[in-house]
Amino acid sequence: MDAELSARFAAEVDWSKVVDPYTPWRHEPDLLERVWSPDPRTADDAHADLHVACCGDGSSVLPAAVEVLPFLVRAAGDPDVRVRPQILDTLAVLGRAGNAARPTAPGPKPGGWRPTAPAAWPAAWDRATDALLPVLADGDEAVRAGVAAVLAQATGRADDLVDRLRSRFEDEPEQPVAEQLVLSVGELAPHAVNRRAAAVAWLRQRMDDVGKGEEPDIDQDVDTWIAWTGQHGHDVRLSAVTALRRALPGRPDPAYARTTVDALIRPSPYDAARFGGHRSLYVTRAVDADARLDEDLPGRLALARELLRQDSAAHHESGLRIAAALMSRWRSAVPELLPDVAEFVDGPDESNRSFALRVLAMCGTVARPWADRAAAHLSEDDEPYEPARRHAVWMLSRAGDERCVEPLIDGLSSGRATGFSVSPPYLSTCDWEKSDLNYTEALRPFAVRAEALLGSLEARGGVPAAADRDRRSSIPQDATERARVRWRETGDPNEVVHSLLELTANSARKAYATPGGVKPLLLLAEIAATHPPVADEVAGRLEATARARVEGDCRFEAMTLLRALWELTRDGHRVAPALVELVRICPPGGAPPTIVEAVELLAEVAAADPTAATAVAPRVRHLLETDERPVRHDQWRAVLSDDALLAAVRTVVGAAQAAGA
Fold this sequence. Notes:
There is one protein chain. The chain is mainly alpha-helical. Among the domains are: 364-463, no CATH class; 503-658. The protein has 35 helices and no strands. Helix 8 (158-171) packs antiparallel against helix 9 and helix 28 (519-528) packs antiparallel against helix 29 (535-551). The longest helix is centred in the C-terminal third of the chain and has 21 residues, at 638-658.
């Protein structure tokens, strides 16, 4: 880096604006100098500091970005800079944040937040776009791809850039860069005015173009082979599908799935060479390509079946993973794909055997027809691959087959590592790469045979003894705990009721946080259960506060209060209306309460008070009729959660019907 450039850092940047947004730290001109450092770590650290100063967590354009943007662009085009791809990543983040902050972008909800950008940002970004255009021809392919990704965010220049990116595609020698160019055209096409139709037509051509085809035989025609090696005819069909979906949002096309199937089953020479011997790379590409088809269930079913019909383990693994994803999202996908998946339970590839068994377990009782095949994988003699054995056990448990009990008891009593945890997961979801296998859930359906064992599970899981819980809860820590201790000591609720009512007087205000959260109300509910004179007043406060928490999207407190209200009053007409509103705001998965726990409580209320179900059953009946599961998709516990949800909704609807609704 020359002295003139270093002097410009100090002269042209207002360093009072280049600050860390989360700390009082202010940067100096040496920050930019370190970007040009020949030491990769020094340069990388400097880039990281610049990234935070310019965009924080990536959600907004900060004032520092306007100051240093010209030098970031210059660094991106300077071969002496070691962190050019990282700088281009930051520029792409800034571009997205700047687009989100435009005045034409949708505004936030009342009380919400929206991305911001300095008033000088649009002009600065436009100048940066011009400066980056020559870098599309840089000698480093990672830099060329990065520039294409950045230019995709220059939506105000869409008409011009669509043509420039298409032109660069014709001269681009490297497949990954060509794929990014196609994706960038797809990003820009919706924003183009004069060139939108041309961009879409070009993308459709790319979707149908298989590139330069298979490599000709050099021994048969050397001239043809030489000509073939000099061609840049890239097969970018999968990228074109993604680009068209971005260019034409909300306009599904069956051709997307057909093209995806063809590109994965008959890959280009480049892809065949890239994935040959690298199974995981192919599987990742196939799974990602499937996910981009999104709501196209028929097309995705066809892709899964076609992959499962192929000969290689990589194809089979891809098909199995896609099948699992589809069955986790759509109820109708289970009968469509489960028989095909079950065929791999006895396959030659150990990891695919294990995965197939895991998918059968995911599907629960509908997998019972294949229980005998799973049971044939329980012993080490029959199944040498331990993960397959554990998933066979899990599958039998989920299917309700008692043949799982003996290996479960043996594994737990032996103390050896079996892949099963003692306790069930706290969250209602379990990502594909994780495991939710646990002894408690596996043995719960077989309590008659494992009752004593389940008792020991609580001890092994670290559940505190009752005496220890009482001891710890008896230590006064706040006003609520002091009131609890006083009530227990005196046995007189009047000693504490007045102070608790006073403490919770404003709890039903949506923005009000009662000291101690909901604990004072819960203690009041506990007292009211044995002290009828205050029961009506406490019930009214519980109901009002629960409704306020629902309005404030605080589902955790709302669920706790509604359960307390139900236990206190057993009045379904009082609880059910608020509870069905809670169902509306609960998420499909994650930390409880999710939609499942909320509907399960509603089912409990409906079963005990059927007349209360008549008004709320129409609000949840649609959950029975939808094909797409209303729970979190793409994870192992989707079917389990959905089955629980269906059972609860059927209870509510059945209670309403019994009551004459």
